[in-house]
Design goal:
By secondary structure, this protein is mainly beta. The protein contains no helices and 11 strands.
Length: 124
């Protein structure tokens, strides 16, 4: 499975961005997809995840109510709608996929495939 993330950019605080992640290859084997982010000098952190077939969603507390994860199974594309962005959301955002159950859901080491990352910068 290959993942290609896009949609990052520069936005003012309070603004919105929509990230996309196109999956290709053996994408029918995906069980779970998620978004992670890493800010300069900080550890990678989980943002959100979605089970590919059932659409169950999971969010980190820091983004609940502001971010929405979704997927389009017809085009094998994952989305992240980010609203009410804050400067602390500034990071490189990565999409990831797993072909198996991941427990706990945000355990990054169990995700099998990773995209190249897209930069999101929120100015104050």
């Amino acid at each position: 499975v290959q993942l290609q993330a896009s949609g990052g950019g520069l936005v003012q605080a309070g603004g919105s961005l929509r990230l996309s992640c196109a999956a290709s290859g053996r994408s029918f084997g995906i069980y779970l997809m998620g978004w992670f982010r890493q800010a300069p000098g900080k550890e990678r952190e989980a943002v959100t995840a979605i089970t590919w077939h059932t659409g169950n969603t999971y969010y980190a507390n820091s983004v609940k109510g502001r971010f929405t994860i979704s997927r389009d199974r017809t085009t094998n594309t994952l989305y992240l709608q980010m609203n009410s962005l804050k400067p602390e959301d500034t990071a490189v955002y990565y999409c990831a996929a797993s072909a198996k159950v991941v427990d706990p859901i945000f355990y990054a080491d169990d995700y099998d495939y990773w995209g190249q990352g897209t930069q999101v910068t929120v100015s104050s």
